[in-house]
Amino acid sequence: MVQRGSVLLALAIVVATAVGAAAQQPTSVASPTAAPTSDQALLKPEQLEALVAPIALYPDALLANMLAAATYPLEVVEADRWIKEKKDLKGDAFKGEVDKKSWDDSVKALTATPSVLDTMSDKLDWTKSLGDAMLAQQADLMDAIQRLREKARGNNKLSSNKQQKVIVTQQENKQVIVIEPTDPNALYVPYYEPATVYGAWPYAAYPPYYFGYPAYIGAGAIAAGIAFGTAWAIGRWGNYWGGGCNWGNRNVYVNHRTTNVWQHNTAHRQGVRYNNANVQQRFGNNNLRAGASNRMDFRGKGGQQVLNPGRDRPGASDRGGNVSDRAGNRGDRGGNRANTADRGGNRGSAGNRAKQGGSGNRAAAANRSRGGGGGGLNVSSGRAATAASARGRASFASAGGGGFRGGGGGGGFRGGGGGGGFRGGGGGRGGGGRRSDLALKHDVVLLGHLENGLGYYRFSYIGSHKAYVGVIAQEVENVMPAAVARGNDGFLRVHYEKLGLTFRSYSDWLAGGARIPAEVHP
């Protein structure tokens, strides 16, 4: 991973919180077997405004690509990871490799703005919610964007400048606000705080989501209104850009296809489940076929199989329980054969399909009925996110060396804290619980916060590339020390059952709806 300045720690923790446009209230859990209803994922107008608050002031061409790409969340993740692996590719060589990819054109377009793609990948809950709303409520979603633009303009925070042109015009007998780049070959991504640009937020139950801003943009600029990052050169990308929005008809188009409005293509959905019954009826059968053609059963797997098709044969990931844990810890498996109870317990914790399919994970994934309108997620934003950030900083202050390498678009951890030159994998032997020491993990990315302030992370164990979701022992130790024990190997372990959580693979978490667990019950 790219190492970024540690001065961005607070921002990285704040902007990586789980996304949604719902009240932060206890969730009523849906039945694990309940089919989606027609209104299950529909959001109220105030929820839609909260959802699009951080992007409503983006240029129309960028916004159109984001709205379309959000309906293909796994391709967004795949493209973001691919970019990070191809850092040496520049200019036309980079574009040439993108052209060869099978991603949707909207996803390909966003590779020209990697900071945007990184945000969408890191804030996967938010991205999926945006895509779900785009499919189920496109007209309502676009109306919400226009309402926010009008609020920003009325608050004297949205106007033309050297980065963008703000045009008030008529479309289909409606007054709408269009935002275009001043230079068609240079696209600037705006950064702003919703409370500043839109004025006092009227929906206390549905706070707006906030992405934060890069370190090179001063806090004073954000406090004054809209600030802009470095321009992305999009001239060489030709037809990938130039799209936009028809606000009168409430349609979007990409790839210069002004007479051919964008239509969702299930082939790029990669088997991700549709939350709304009407949407499922429109696209579901084709989506199943698309998932099958990509060798992915969306009911039990997620993006990891798409990202690593050679490693994740059907059934292989769950067959032996915590594969990455075992693969990265062969010393534990081979050197402690007498301790079979420990081995069996570890497999049961990670590989028990009954538990993965039961109420534990479903409770974490079925957060669809909160907030009165359904579709809401466990959100931390504004002051709540700041408080969670403070708790995170306090807890990680006690971690060993290495530590957080954050960034404005969401950060990650690099292993090494307290481990010196350790390269042994996911833990040592003995001690019970799940190996959760920061020193045993790499590529750790904050997905969001639980209601007690604990971070919820994506990570891999040293010696393996398979991704999991869960907590970090050093942080749990400060919040709920009874759930943490130190193993015979000297590394910290977490008893997930004491937290009311289930240790899950990242692919299983994606397939379950990519939801941040709403509550923790010790």
UniProtKB/TrEMBL annotation:
Keyword hit for Signal: yes
Biased composition (Gly residues): 410-433
Region (Disordered): 288-381, 410-434
Residue span, Peptidase S74 domain: 436-484
Entry annotated with the keyword Signal: yes
Residues annotated as signal peptide: 1-21
InterPro entries membership: DUF3300 (IPR021728), S74_ICA (IPR030392)
Pfam families: DUF3300, Peptidase_S74
UniProt keyword list: Signal
Highest taxon in the source lineage: Bacteria
Protein name as annotated: Peptidase S74 domain-containing protein
Organism taxonomic ancestry: Bacteria, Pseudomonadati, Pseudomonadota, Alphaproteobacteria, Hyphomicrobiales
